[in-house]
UniProtKB/TrEMBL annotation:
InterPro entries attached to this UniProt entry: Ribosomal_mL59 (IPR037507), Ribosomal_mL59_dom (IPR040922)
First and last residue of the signal peptide: none
One cellular component (GO) term of this entry: mitochondrial large ribosomal subunit
Domain Large ribosomal subunit protein mL59: 51-188
Name of the protein this chain belongs to: Large ribosomal subunit protein mL59 domain-containing protein
Family annotation (Pfam families): Mitoc_mL59 (PF18126)
Source species of the chain: Cryptococcus depauperatus CBS 7841
Length: 203
């Protein structure tokens, strides 16, 4: 039953259509995602963008819509005082990471935009009027975590107690090595002091 439901909406061969055309239709259907298969949240996001293009009387062909799963670079902020490079304001994703994970659980990853949580490259979306919508934005892969000494010529000097610990442990060991001798001397001095403190008279 599960397989029957899975393939119930697939494109079936028709005797009236040549085999080459049928294969082309099947391939095209797998290269794009129909708009009706999108989550309502993404559907509204694309509809809002296309509506803005139509209001500006722009010609709509193959258009690019900002990926709501990614950060996007905004207006220029200025130059860095340290490096001198230009810095920019960054626009946060329209859809939070928590909601992205929920969408990935409920929908196919191929039908959703690419993101750090979705390793697959999202397919273009075929809108109702035939417009092909591509997702705009690049997934930035985080660099691997490096240790504190990676790329350093000089090792990290450490905290003050860490630097003083070897000498402290050496002094402690030296005192422990002569502990029996010091205990014997202390007991001897204590006994002599006790003898000296006795009264000379027997009463």
């Amino acid at each position: 039953m599960a397989l029957k439901r899975l393939f119930s909406n697939a494109i079936r061969p028709s005797p009236d259509i040549p085999a080459v055309a049928q294969m082309a239709a099947i391939t095209a259907s797998h290269d794009v995602t129909p708009a009706n298969r999108l989550p309502p949240l993404l559907y509204r996001h694309i509809a809002k963008h296309i509506s803005a293009l139509r209001n500006s009387r722009s010609q709509i062909g193959n258009t690019a819509v900002p990926n709501p799963f990614l950060y996007h670079r905004g207006a220029k902020r200025g130059e860095s005082q340290i490096t001198g490079k230009l810095t920019y304001h960054w626009i946060e994703p329209k859809i939070s990471v928590r909601r992205q994970k929920l969408l990935l659980q409920r929908y196919s990853a191929e039908d959703l935009p690419p993101s750090p949580a979705n390793p697959l490259n999202g397919r273009p979306v075929k809108w109702i009027d035939g417009t092909i919508v591509n997702w705009e934005g690049k997934v930035r892969v985080k660099s691997k975590k490096q240790g504190p000494y990676a790329g350093r010529k000089i090792m990290f000097k450490g905290h003050l107690d860490e630097r003083a610990r070897p000498q402290k442990m050496a002094d402690r060991q030296e005192r422990m090595d002569g502990m029996e001798k010091r205990i014997a001397e202390w007991r001897k001095n204590k006994a002599e002091e006790k003898v000296r403190s006795r009264p000379s008279l027997p009463f």
